[in-house]
Na(+)/H(+) antiporter NhaA (Saccharothrix carnea), 430 residues
Amino acid sequence: MQRRATTLFNRGSWPEAKRIADILRLETVGGVIMLAAALLGLVWANSPWAPTYEALRDFEFGIASLHLELSVGHWASDGLLAIFFFVAGLELKREFVAGDLRDPRRAAVPVAAAVGGVVVPALIYVLVNLGTPGATSGWAIPTATDIAFALAVLAVIGRSLPAALRTFLLTLAVVDDLIAIVIIAIFYTDDLAVTPLLLTVVPLALFTVLVQRRVRSWWLLLPLAVAAWGFMHASGVHATVAGVLLGFAVPVIRRAPGEGPGLAEHFEHRFRPLSTGVAVPVFAFFASGVAIGGMDGLTSSLADTVTLGIVAGLLLGKLVGITAATWLVSRFTRAELDDDLAWVDVAGLAVLGGIGFTVSLLVGELAFGEGSRPYDDAKIGILLGSLLSALVATVILRARNRVYRRIHEEETRDDDHDGIPDVHQRDVID
């Protein structure tokens, strides 16, 4: 029997397509809110009221005896962002346990693309900064893709983009987050305290036991999650890693058919709005507030190798890395693009992957330190690289809009009015 050829970016199953569409709608709204918060922070930091912004960002509160007397800005990056990574952990586990990507052949493309989209931008950044002392510590800054920001742009320029490409972008960004977490844990942990790190296992294990028994009581789970976060923070490993580990602990599969949504789906439904609507926008507000210093300051930053390396990494590195990795997968597996798509579509999506924001800003803070000149240059590079990526992706994807509109009409046609697009029913029959 002849084996059916593998097709890149073909349609997934209807349940998975519907679930992805629901996630995209939430992330798109969150991206708009995040963009507004980032612009507000940037404008405020460069206004006559800049001292008020800095006083708010640097105001410290917390429990000093537990080493948790942090500034508001640090609470946003270390605390609120843990919610974002918790949701990322849930989503990543969901994708590879119960999603269409549990099939290794289907998962190979976004995983390879994510790896390419990390390696090439990092190499470009290092090459640009080889002669600048201390600058190479920011090599991981241009490796991240901000899914909420990217989808907010897609909502404006690519409403008819095929579902398979949207799924590819979402999954690529989720895998990208996992790689970023590993990078943060390994390369941006300077002083490791072993005792708190070992103590992290205790609340994490208790949390795991409870969620595996399908316990949903917040008064039991939340204190354990906070304790795991606190011990992780005290260990020197960035506290957001605790969020991912907690997300990985939550079971995805239902114990019995018809018992309602799985626990991972339940938590994702509860925490994704909090992540996209509160945690990430607040972090963006405090992280984007860089004082440019007028035209002279902007000119100085644009000439700095940190800024140039980040812009080149986000704009060119993502394009080359994601496109090349996807092409190599197709080359070695002899897979072919879906008949409706062309490689320019992959290139457009790869450029869109150059919109790095949330994780890029976090890595920039870890690499250079809050308030340092290199970190300010990194912020400008992240903002400029993301803006240029959005503009170039707009040009590429809008040029193909007529093709996308035809595909979208086919994907959403439901002549029998049963709530399932006909194209997915034909896929099952075929």
Notes: The mean pLDDT is 83. Strands lie at 7-8, 60-63, 68-71, 336-337. The chain has one domain: 7-188+238-411.
